[in-house]
């Protein structure tokens, strides 16, 4: 089928590089004579167009994407509560329930004469994209997540920017920790994968790094700090992924809304309180949280985003559908969405970065 009009959407949490992807898609598509339309706030622009003055679709052209490569966030808006397969609606009982609006969404694509969709997102967004492809929509996915937890791609855009900023923050905390002879516990995002904690922790010479992939023993963490104290090192830096948990404990969850993934958090304060009690040392906790999502993308993420966006358009032009563009250096390849969605790329316990950390004396709490 000849392509004339394509839709672009961004779903899930924002990440540095989203706007660069949008720009690359639009410029590559315009060169092929296609029209581009951004779908507001995930799929909400099509599912509830009455909410938006322009009807939920943003026409995209060379002018609208000029100068956005370096900007954080997304000009289209995003949401993690707009899953058309499980859409939250307020029932007559006053409670929220989820319903399947995917057929309604496909009808909206047809009504807007959109021939294809480029869906930019993480596991949840790409799972939705895969389901829409199975229903007959022409779809190409672009892997976005600061967590770097998508299978079959060496990297997702947004990850490098998050690691860079986390490393800078931990570097700054070294000086105040040393000045006050404190333990500094730094909680970073990543959900159930420890990529951000591992990479930023090793890069910033943290003393302890706690990952979801390695259940920790808090007594061993305390022993590491006391060992440093005995060697005259009166401060310690502990980096903890939000999905980390002890050998006999569960992941710390702070809440969940209807139609939304569970929200992790609180593990940093839990570890900080335990270490202060076990070591007697003054402890401070810093939660970087959404700071890791904001701000401009690094040069690495800008380039990766532009490559992904252009590759997504090439894929559609070649007749591809139901695939995700994936980094496979030195090229960008295509991977079936059904091999990506519902899977999680976790940190391998024998990866070189963990081995490097152990050789440098980092404790992983095990």
Task: Provide a descriptive summary of the structure in words.
The chain is of the alpha/beta class. The protein folds into two domains: 5-157 and 297-339, Rossmann fold (3-Layer(aba) Sandwich), CATH 3.40.50; 162-294, Phosphofructokinase domain (Rossmann fold), CATH 3.40.50.460. The chain is 34% helix and 19% strand. The chain has helices spanning 18-31, 44-47, 102-111, 123-134, 159-180, 195-203, 218-230, 267-279, 299-317, 352-359, and strands at residues 5-10, 35-39, 57-60, 87-90, 96-99, 116-121, 139-143, 183-188, 208-210, 236-241, 253-255, 263-264, 283-287, 323-328, 331-336. The strands form four sheets. It has a seven-stranded mixed sheet with strand order 3-2-1-6-7-14-15, sandwiched between helices. The chain has a four-stranded parallel sheet with strand order 9-10-8-13, with helices on both faces. The chain has a two-stranded antiparallel ribbon with strand order 4-5. Helix 5 (159-180) packs across helix 6 and helix 7 crosses helix 8. The longest helix has 22 residues, at 159-180. The protein is elongated. The N and C termini lie far apart (56 Å). The mean pLDDT is 94.
Give the topology.
Layout (H helix, E strand, L loop, with lengths): L4 E6 L7 H14 L3 E5 L4 H4 L9 E4 L26 E4 L5 E4 L2 H10 L4 E6 L1 H12 L4 E5 L15 H22 L2 E6 L6 H9 L4 E3 L7 H13 L5 E6 L11 E3 L7 E2 L2 H13 L3 E5 L11 H19 L5 E6 L2 E6 L15 H8 L7
Parallel strand pairs: 1-2, 1-6, 6-7, 7-14, 8-10, 8-13, 9-10
Antiparallel strand pairs: 2-3, 4-5, 11-12, 14-15
Helix pairs in contact: 1-9, 5-6, 7-8
């Amino acid at each position: 089928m000849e392509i004339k009009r394509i839709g672009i959407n961004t779903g899930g949490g924002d990440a540095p590089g989203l706007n660069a992807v949008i720009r690359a898609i639009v410029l590559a598509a315009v060169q092929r004579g296609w029209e581009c339309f951004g779908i507001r706030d995930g799929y909400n622009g099509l599912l509830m167009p009455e909410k938006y003055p322009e009807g939920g679709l943003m026409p995209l052209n060379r002018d609208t994407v000029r100068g956005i490569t370096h900007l954080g966030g997304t000009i289209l808006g995003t949401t993690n509560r707009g899953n058309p397969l499980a859409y939250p609606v307020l029932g007559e009982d006053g409670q929220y329930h989820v319903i399947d609006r995917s057929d309604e969404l496909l009808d909206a694509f047809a009504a807007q004469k959109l021939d294809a969709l480029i869906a930019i997102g993480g596991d949840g967004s790409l799972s939705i994209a895969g389901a829409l492809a199975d229903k007959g929509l022409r779809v190409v996915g672009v892997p976005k997540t600061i967590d770097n937890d998508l299978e079959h791609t060496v990297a997702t855009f947004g990850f490098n920017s998050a690691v860079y900023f986390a490393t800078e923050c931990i570097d700054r905390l070294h000086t105040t920790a040393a000045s006050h002879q404190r333990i500094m516990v730094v909680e970073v995002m990543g959900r159930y994968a420890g990529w951000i904690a591992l990479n930023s922790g090793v890069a910033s010479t943290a003393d302890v790094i706690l990952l979801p992939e390695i259940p920790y023993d808090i007594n061993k963490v305390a022993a590491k700090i006391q060992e440093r104290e005995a060697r005259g090192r009166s401060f310690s830096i502990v980096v903890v992924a939000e999905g980390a948990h002890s050998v006999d404990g569960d992941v710390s969850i702070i809440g969940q809304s209807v139609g939304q993934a569970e929200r992790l958090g609180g593990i940093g304060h839990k570890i900080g309180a335990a270490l202060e009690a076990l070591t007697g040392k003054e402890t401070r906790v810093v939660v970087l949280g959404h700071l890791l999502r904001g701000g401009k993308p690094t040069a690495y993420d800008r380039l990766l985003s532009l490559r992904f966006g252009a590759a997504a358009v090439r894929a559609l032009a070649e007749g591809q559908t139901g695939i995700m563009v994936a980094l496979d250096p030195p090229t960008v390849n295509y991977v079936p969405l059904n091999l990506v969605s519902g899977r999680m790329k976790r940190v391998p316990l024998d990866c070189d970065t963990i081995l490097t950390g152990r050789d440098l004396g980092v404790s992983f709490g095990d």
